[in-house]
Specification:
Its EC number is 1.8.1.9. It catalyses: [thioredoxin]-dithiol + NADP(+) = [thioredoxin]-disulfide + NADPH + H(+). Homodimer. This protein has 317 residues and is an alpha/beta fold. The chain folds into two domains: 192 residues, 3-Layer(bba) Sandwich (FAD/NAD(P)-binding domain); 105 residues, FAD/NAD(P)-binding domain (3-Layer(bba) Sandwich). The chain is built from six helices and 19 strands. The strands form five sheets. Strands 1, 2, 5, 6, 7, 8 and 19 form a seven-stranded mixed beta sheet that branches. A five-stranded parallel beta sheet has the order 10-17-11-12-13, covered by helices on one side. The two termini are 25 Å apart. Bound molecules: flavin-adenine dinucleotide. The site of flavin-adenine dinucleotide has 39 residues, from helix 1 and helix 6.
Length: 317
């Protein structure tokens, strides 16, 4: 039986582990069988994580976080959690190998997944012209020609933001009308650097080592044409990884795990959540790491209060 089980090995999970381990709580962290290190494993240069003035490769940053967590005694298990039971005082999680693990507290830091187009070469050119994060990668596209795929608020926000860097931003949308709110649409329509490409979808991504362009398919007549590009930003949504906790933890209207105020406390006492799985807005490595800190401190306080209550009960028995 453990004090803390952490589920997830992104910046939130490893930062929670660093804090919990340094507090002497001997955390056990389930890192996933295949997705170890989280979303930053899918990128190349990270230039906005403080402490790395020259930038750092995403996988290197995650390796350092893991080393730091292990240095203070975190046990990392390379398996997925496939089932959780938060109903009792003792929290139970089942791993992919069928083993059941118990702890007084669980930190749930499973992140979220950007929706993909589902076409060949999308993953291969991720970090080489294909991106899901304007805040992270916009800076690399100064004076370039890029495209944003999507028709919602985040696509409009990303397109507008990217005009700070790029000379030209195409917005590619499958229909003739946007889903985005009127105000976000208007902001994009008014921007002279943005050009809308209606009734179109990305049929193919081109480029050997870097993106060089895309093939567009007309969704009305099926015709295809090429568009030369330096960058492609995919902004078609994001899914928090919450499938294991449906019906077990309260969720928000955005589909993230609901937490109390600025804390990491979920609707189930002793279960804390951190990182992108609670965050519909910011979704950055540093905000996820900070959120992991909050979760570790909340779990620590919960454990201390629990121990104190036990001592009082014993003394008055
Ligand atoms: C291509 C790309 C580039 C990015 N670039 C930047 C950047 O330059 N700067 C920046 O600040 N942010 C960047 N981001 C965003 C950043 O990566 C995320 O905000 C951050 O990783 C979120 O951290 P997290 O710990 O909440 O979740 P994640 O990093 O998603 O980690 C969650 C982890 O939990 C694991 N997991 C999920 N379910 C289970 C389970 N059941 N059992 C065990 N493990 C499980 C997953 O496999 C994963 O390893 C980028 C994102 C992407 C996709």
């Amino acid at each position: 039986m453990h004090q803390i089980i952490i589920i997830g090995s992104g910046p939130a999970g490893f930062t929670a582990a660093i804090y919990a381990a340094r507090a002497g709580l001997k955390p056990v962290l389930f890192a996933s069988a295949v997705g170890i290190g989280g979303e930053l494993m899918n990128t190349t240069e990270v230039e906005n994580f403080p402490g790395f003035p020259e930038g750092v490769q995403g996988p290197d940053l995650m390796q350092k976080m893991q080393e730091q967590a292990e240095r203070f005694g975190t046990e990392v298990i390379y398996d997925d959690i496939t089932e959780v039971d938060f109903s009792g005082e003792m929290k139970r999680v089942t791993a992919g190998d069928g083993s059941v693990h118990e702890a007084h507290t669980v930190i749930y830091a499973t992140g979220s997944a950007y929706r993909k187009l589902g076409i060949a070469d999308e993953d291969r050119l991720s970090g080489h012209g294909v991106s899901w994060c304007a805040t992270c990668d916009g800076f690399f596209f100064r004076e370039k020609t890029i495209a944003v795929v999507g028709g919602g608020d985040s696509a409009m926000e990303e397109a507008t933001f990217l005009t700070r860097f790029a000379d030209k931003v195409f917005v590619i949308h499958r229909r003739e009308e946007l889903k985005a709110s009127k105000i976000m649409q208007q902001r994009a329509f008014d921007n002279p650097k943005i050009e809308f490409v209606w009734n179109s979808e990305v049929a193919a991504i081109q480029g050997e080592t870097e993106l060089t362009g895309i093939t567009l398919r007309d969704t009305v007549d099926g015709s295809e044409r090429d568009l030369a590009l330096d960058g492609l930003f995919i902004a078609i949504g994001n899914d928090p990884r919450t499938h294991l906790v449906h019906g077990k933890l309260d969720l928000t209207a955005d589909g993230t795990i609901a937490v109390e105020g600025r804390s990491s406390r979920t609707s189930s006492p002793g279960v804390f959540a951190a990182g992108d799985v609670i965050d519909p807005s910011y979704r950055q490595a540093i905000t996820a790491a900070a959120s992991g800190t909050v979760a570790a401190l909340d779990a620590e306080h919960y454990l201390a209060a629990r121990e104190q209550a036990e001592q009082i009960a014993l003394a008055t028995a």
